[in-house]
Design a protein that fits this description.
The structure is a homodimer. Chain A is mainly alpha-helical. Chain A is built from 7 helices and 2 strands. Chain A binds a DNA duplex through helix 2.
Chain lengths: 146, 146
Amino acid sequence: MYTIGQISEMFGLPISTLRYYDKQGLFPKMKRVSGIRKFSDDEIEALRVIECLKKSGLEIKDIKQFMDLCVKGASTYPARKAIFEKQRENLLAEIARLNNVLDMLNFKCWYYEQAICDGSEDRVQSMIPDKLPRDIKIAYENAHRD
Amino acid sequence: MYTIGQISEMFGLPISTLRYYDKQGLFPKMKRVSGIRKFSDDEIEALRVIECLKKSGLEIKDIKQFMDLCVKGASTYPARKAIFEKQRENLLAEIARLNNVLDMLNFKCWYYEQAICDGSEDRVQSMIPDKLPRDIKIAYENAHRD
DNA sequence: GCTTGACCTAAAGTCAGGTTTAGGTGATAT
DNA sequence: ATATCACCTAAACCTGACTTTAGGTCAAGC
């Protein structure tokens, strides 16, 4: 059993954040002794899950939903799996999007490199979109595909 | 020359957003005729750049900085290139992070699949971390690497 | 007996990136 | 001449995830 201050140290999270998470219902099993929060192994595990789910882009209210499912036992395994599967779909789409953005940035870096060489954007502008070098053209096309 | 309503249609952006961008200084060259904004090709190009830079995760104030560089002419090509290069570094790091998160989600999906089969988490818990199947173990390790 | 330190609460504040509201101007249509 | 429409402004409001503030409890040390 740990106090909020000890948990704050352990996870490198401000005490105010831990109290905020508690208020949002992220520690549904947490006990108190004369008003003071007692963090047990359950809450430590919950915090690890919270950090994971936050990294994956889930909102607090969705994390709460997951925590509530956890309390309800084995019958909620499918629902919990569904949350992770949906988030995996979201993440795959996001990674694909970011790879297109990366191509846009690659194109822009190349563009300004040419402009710096030439002292103007005229030549490089005139190359868009058909006279670009092959790999740059591919990046340009990826960047402008939605 | 277009009105704010026409541009709103063209880009599918609310008028309020265009006014907000203007207020943030994202159209440094924009003209007005008796108080009314006139969007020219310059502003249309600016909007395309804004959408690109926003997709890449840049904040409004950084986009403003870029727009201000554009106004200052060819001497700012290196500074503009630097902005894109820095953002490319950020994005590469973000994509790498998201790939680790993806491994975490893959692991969690597998975990609950096993738990659903077994009707409990006992067996799958006991496999962590050394008795996991090879590809799951790799996902688990990637997910827990920072 | 009083200060310090760790805990507690409710409520207000912060930040980004907008959106909404309330009120105003000027051209066109009935 | 009056209603409507597209534009304008400043300022308030919104959301999410916290953080800060102001005030309160309680045990330990001097």
